[in-house]
Amino acid sequence: MRVDPNYITNLTASVDQSASEEARLASELSSGLRVASLQDDPVAAAQSALLGSSIAKDDTFVQTASNEASRMQVTDSTLGEVVTEVTSALSAAVAGNNGTLNASDIASVVQKLSGIRDQVLSLANTSYQGQYLFGGSQGSAPPFTLDTSTTPATAVYTGDGNVQYVETPSGQKIQVNLPGSAVFGAAGSGVLGALNRLISDFSGGVTTAALTADTGALTTALGQLSSQRSTLDSALSRLQSTSAYTQTEESQLKVAQSSLVSVDPAAVATQLSQAETQHQALLSVINALGSGDLFSLMR
Fold first, then answer.
1. C-alpha span between 113 and 97 (Å, rounded)
2. Most buried residue among 135, 173, 209, 276 by CB atoms closer than 10 A?
3. H/E segment holding residue 155
């Protein structure tokens, strides 16, 4: 029997094509990917790359936001303690400014105010994960020291006034820190400056008018500190809500990317079964023609 050479050639090509299709489907089923390289589907691969870039950007922001939110929460908690301390100082200053205290009473007020000032100074030097919270961009060293060589004592600020931000995937900026000079003051200003003046007032026996003025200054400084805390809390809320939105967006992008490059396992398994059946059928035809002497049939 003589077989048409073109038929044999086409049959052989069909076997090769069938084997290739079977291998491709098996690979897709194993990896779960329809597009594993650019040549598989250039358009889908390009779209997947763009989605991957957006996913990476979102993921970086979410991780950064989580770290910054933790630091901001510690900052807020620290400021809450400062508010409690300064409120206690105001009560002591008002109670001590009644003109009836003896020397022992005044010494007790000085001791109390000094203890509060030292505690506020310690809180102003709070660190988190090795970085000082209130140093501006100078987080590697304690931002505040106390110079007791002056009268009144002076709070020395060695940080800077830089405000730090994180950028959202959409390009917006959210503040994540409070420079210490804006919160506690520096030199003779702010909460620390007012506390130092009150301590000096009671220690030196100054007039009621001076005590009243410096108590008022401490009240004003507390208001400024509370305003800064409100700024931080607002930024924290915005950071958390933006992070939550970004996480949702990231999940949606991952779904979209998966739909571009992933396979439907059930559908591919069916196709693979059909390809295997077809391949076996082609091999059966070749066997029926006498595949061991296939080329002789072409002569």
1. 13
2. 135
3. strand 154-157
- Find out whether 230 and 223 touch, Cβ atoms under 8 Å: no
Asked if residues 156 and 127 have their Cβ atoms less than 8 Å apart, the reply is no
Residue 26 has pLDDT above 90, yes or no: no
Helices (H), ranges, 97-162? 103-124
DSSP state of 188: T
Integer Cα distance of 184 and 77 in angstroms: 15
- CA nearest neighbour of 28 among 278, 269, 254, 257: 269
Axis-axis angle for helices 42-96, 208-261 (nearest 10): 160
Question: Which band of pLDDT confidence, cut at 50, 70 and 90, is reported for residue 240?
Answer: very high
Helix (H, G, I), strand (E, B) or coil at 154: strand
- Chain position carrying tokens 């970086």: 60
For residue 268, give every residue at least 6 positions away whose Cβ sits within 8 Å of its Cβ, in sequence order, or none.
Answer: 25, 28, 29
- 159-209 pLDDT tens trace: 999 999 999 999 999 999 999 999 998 878 899 999 999 999 999 876 788
CA distance 67 to 73: 10
Q: Which amino acid is at 200?
A: S
> If residue 165 lies in a helix (H) or strand (E), which one and from where to where?
strand 165-167
What's the burial of 159, exposed, middle or buried (CB within 10 Å: 0-12/13-18/19+)? Answer: buried
- CB count in 10 Å sphere of residue 2: 8
Contact 186, 202 (CB under 8 A): no
Q: How far is CA 197 from the centre of its chain?
A: 40
Q: Is the peptide bond between 152 and the residue preceding it cis, with omega within 30 degrees of 0?
A: yes
